[in-house]
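User: I'll paste a sequence; please echo it back and then give the predicted structure.

Assistant: Echoing your sequence first, then the prediction.
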Amino acid sequence: MTIIFRYLIRQVMISMVAVSGILLLVFMSGRFLKYLGSAAEGEIAADVLFSIMAFRFPGFLELILPLGLFIGILLAYGRMYLESEMTVLFACGVSDRQLLTKTLLGSLPVMVVVGAMSLYVSPWGMKQVEQIFNEQRQATEFEMLAPGRFQDFSAGNRVTYTEGLSDDKRELRGVFIAEYGKDGQGITIFTANSGSQLIDGETGSRFLILEEGGRFNGEPGRLDYNVTGFEAYGLKIESGEKGTRELEEGLSTLALMKSDNPEDRALLHWRFSLPLIVPIVTLLAVRLSRVNPRQGRFFHLLPAMLVYITYLGLLIVARDALADGKVPEWIGMLWVHALFLAFGLWLQFGPAWLHKRRALKEARTHA
């Protein structure tokens, strides 16, 4: 039985790792493209993108691992049913209950990992992301510049371009700045061969000193531009937004336990719900993986995925209802888990119970 157990778990884990890897690649790529767009617009610096993705990795993992395990069981056991390996196992004395028990034991490490990610690692990672975003919000325009790219600053009132930027971000080459008037009526354009940052020691204000360039002021479509050449010209660099912004997902689990805010309590229930998903979807997947060889390899995937989507969707609905105070906290999101636990138990043991009851009824009738 130990050899069978190791074989079953190995098949499930191989499928789970493959599916989880593909899902992680898809979801993280989409999020990375979103952050890349923010970097292109000058909202965040390009050198923090990989740090943000690394800190957000546990948050992706806690959601993808249960789904990866669910699909992994469907694929692994489905293949074994199609190739009659399950028939051989059942003929050798392995029962449905033993198969379920061994699969549940194999899913315990996944449950532990998801619980650790949900309760501790993921909130810590989101806290680091929160700090990075707050630093980016408070950064000056000069620190957000990227060479070879037109970038919007000051809510779209200023467009800046530089051909080159030193490693310490203190020297610019080939500078172009277009600044729109406050009423949107006029435009001022600066061009310079180079630029550097100057910090006023008394006030702490920062200035961009442009060297060997020109200033062009006027309205587009008209010819009466004011043109001024200069050897050095100073522009004040605007600082980022003051204050900090807290992400709800960055709150620690202990802080959520101490909070009386309904939204915080709902988030706490959500974090405890994620590891509870693992054994329940395992129970569902073991039964839903049964395939008739005539039906094909992927025939069972569609109804199984509909069950999983319904499960996750009801959890999201329950979280929103809990945050709005529509559901008592002592019920929380447990009713969703209880509903699908009962459904999984019925799928696993219901048909056998009905068959046994029908057989007893027929026996009494003949007697």
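The mean pLDDT is 83. The first helix runs from residue 2 to 40.
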